[in-house]
Amino acid sequence: MKLQELAKALDCELRGDGGTVITSAAPIESADSGQISFVANAQYLKYLETTSASALILAEDQQFDRLPSLRSKNPYLLFAKVIGLLYPDETPIWGAAKSASVSSNSDIHSDVSIGEFCVVEDGASIGAGTVIDAHCFIGKNTHIGQNCRLYPNVVIREECTLGDEVILQSGVVIGGDGFGYARSESGYTRIKQIGTVTLGNRVEIGANCAVDRGALGPTVIADGVKIDNLVQVAHNVQIGENSIIVSQVGISGSTKIGKWVTLAGQAGIIGHLDIGDRAVVTAQSGVTKDIPADTVVFGSPAREIRSAHKIAAATNRLPDLSKRVKALEEELKSSKPDKQ
Amino acid sequence: MKLQELAKALDCELRGDGGTVITSAAPIESADSGQISFVANAQYLKYLETTSASALILAEDQQFDRLPSLRSKNPYLLFAKVIGLLYPDETPIWGAAKSASVSSNSDIHSDVSIGEFCVVEDGASIGAGTVIDAHCFIGKNTHIGQNCRLYPNVVIREECTLGDEVILQSGVVIGGDGFGYARSESGYTRIKQIGTVTLGNRVEIGANCAVDRGALGPTVIADGVKIDNLVQVAHNVQIGENSIIVSQVGISGSTKIGKWVTLAGQAGIIGHLDIGDRAVVTAQSGVTKDIPADTVVFGSPAREIRSAHKIAAATNRLPDLSKRVKALEEELKSSKPDKQ
Amino acid sequence: MKLQELAKALDCELRGDGGTVITSAAPIESADSGQISFVANAQYLKYLETTSASALILAEDQQFDRLPSLRSKNPYLLFAKVIGLLYPDETPIWGAAKSASVSSNSDIHSDVSIGEFCVVEDGASIGAGTVIDAHCFIGKNTHIGQNCRLYPNVVIREECTLGDEVILQSGVVIGGDGFGYARSESGYTRIKQIGTVTLGNRVEIGANCAVDRGALGPTVIADGVKIDNLVQVAHNVQIGENSIIVSQVGISGSTKIGKWVTLAGQAGIIGHLDIGDRAVVTAQSGVTKDIPADTVVFGSPAREIRSAHKIAAATNRLPDLSKRVKALEEELKSSKPDKQ
Question: Does the structure's ipTM exceed the value 0.90?
């Protein structure tokens, strides 16, 4: 594509030669002729003068005119759109693979693609434009919206509901039984998990995640939530719109996560908590209490970040503090020989 | 069902109108007419006076007579049983799906259900009443007991043994190769893992867990153990009866976990340790030493909980302690001008 | 096999009766007649005098002559080789299972085994000697080398490349989409992940791991890297030769891990870091900064281990330090009544 075609299609500002031909995209440090790159992070500005890219995507106020560029207030978002144009999805082949086992009591739109060896059970429905890759399992009465993508080997158990434009990576398990047991002297007795899972529109879930069905009532993941790989979402968790859950996070039962929250990698949240809107839980933190909106927490157990940082800084100096206390003790001892 | 039918079937105390009709169950805060709910946690007693449930399951000594109730010393266990009656399992269709690949050299009871695209290899056996959902793999010479349930997409490799009433959620891998290598100057050489996995009766394992086969000899999970999602059980681990392993826990090779132990979420245990009966490892703790029976530990590295809490409390006050030491230093300095 | 046959096949020193017949291997504490065992760890030397094994594998300088033995500078490596001889792999049946869906536009060597219900898409290639178990998915244009083993239920998405002798355990997902989004006021927009995954020779990856494809350019795991179960490798990570990644580790995007590095269980590394050759990250550590070569780190956040240990030791004594400071304050107060 020519740069001017990209600019026109994306309605963004073009600076320099719009006739520049762009064939692919690459990171700024390795981009070559015919490639477009971007800078969305000040760390990479150092490559501006040396990159061999043919064009760049830059912030509107970035001073630079050595190469032609596309400009945006949000260059990373513009880059996402450019990538979408340069690398269009393949047109799916609608219909079910001959090997797939699709119930005659299901409701599958004609513009749906179902891959080899998939299983779609009674009462399931799948909306137009959805692509389901090989080896997926769609349980009884599960409803999948439009334009979703299930990569190979996804399991969605019975009675679950997915919105539109949901993307599930390989190995995802939606609607497994929650971990609920009644303890007695003879052992633990399973509480049958009779709830469901509801995923909103544009929910995306990474490889090998587990989202359990509710014990009673649903586990709910709201519109626009993005979840990385190997994340655990326990029964009856609720996650608000546009929250981000990074890899290997664990969220225990019945906890409510607000909107626009970020849970960084390997963080853990105990059950029955409320995490306020726009809260940020830093990596590996362990949350044991409710978190108010707009609060950043750190540590295990997690504390508000300023006090956590003060404590961390003091902990770093602790060996020195110990020495200073010892010195004080000795000084005090030596200064009072008469008292001994 | 009528409340008196539930009470009779479960042999429990009924208070109030036994003719009350119960159609389903719900959490106490959202239960409505026709629904039964329960209180097993003091946190929820506040809903007693306002719930719209038609009946409740309560502790024997709970004062309450506004609504009819079922009573038990263990109301949560009674609730588990009520749920079992209100929501019976579907009757399985015995036999193997036409698409399944079942070896003619396997020993499958006639009352076994095998789902679409399952693979059952030579020498495998499966006991009466077991239901195996779609896309499961049962390797050579693996033995599965009676009344087990394997949800879609479970892998059990060769030579493993499962007891009765075992439940495996989707994505579980039983009998993968343990992580054992001999290091030399040229790299790491795999130690072929020739052991097996043995799961006792009523073992339940959550979605996407991995239980590795032993290097030599078996990995053993005893009767009644319940394991949540995304847990790692390394080669030659032994887990004693009725222990509970919460989501994302990792147990390293050859460690022995006692009976009635609780390992809370994201805890990690290094290899070759002994964890005593009824020990509790709190969430995210990192266990580096043996734990005696009946001991609660906390932290990374994990310490006995009282000393861990003392240290945690002192750590919280550390910035203040630093200031107090600085004040002492200054006071001592100023009090001895003659010495300087 | 006779002990002298093992010694000859492996070209190692034999002491004692070479005619001893060995039928299997076992741990030294439970080995019995006809079995061979080994000691590679001083912890197990205590069993030397009591073991019922028929022969042992020992270090060259270990004083012991009660039983016949094989000797090596690296007895654990020798044990790995003995196990390989005593427990040879079954000869695979070359060819694809009738139920497998193998594209006619793929390039599969005649000596390849493809299991039941596998899917191999257009443009894929698979080298001689590779065994692919049931339920595996090989995406478009993915290339798999020689003598690889994919256990049941592995997913390798499109455009990935595997070297020779790669072993992937069940549930592994190679080439899932990386977690990349551009944030704007309306939510997060997916950055299409157009990169790939490259696995070198002898790479081994444990059950239910996720290795994401690059955003732009590849995610690269070099020759000889061994990865345990449930590990997360994010987009554009690079892992150098012969590094070891233990269970449940998470490596964030674009981080470079050097050669011969060890990342112990549940450790986490944030994105865009450089971890030097032969560095060791201890279990559960959280790495937030580059690590120089040959450095051991510990803690969350991770610090160089000597300073981390000093801080940990001082933290252990913190409740005592608090008391000592209080005593100093009181002493100072009481020693200066005139000032008050």
Answer: yes
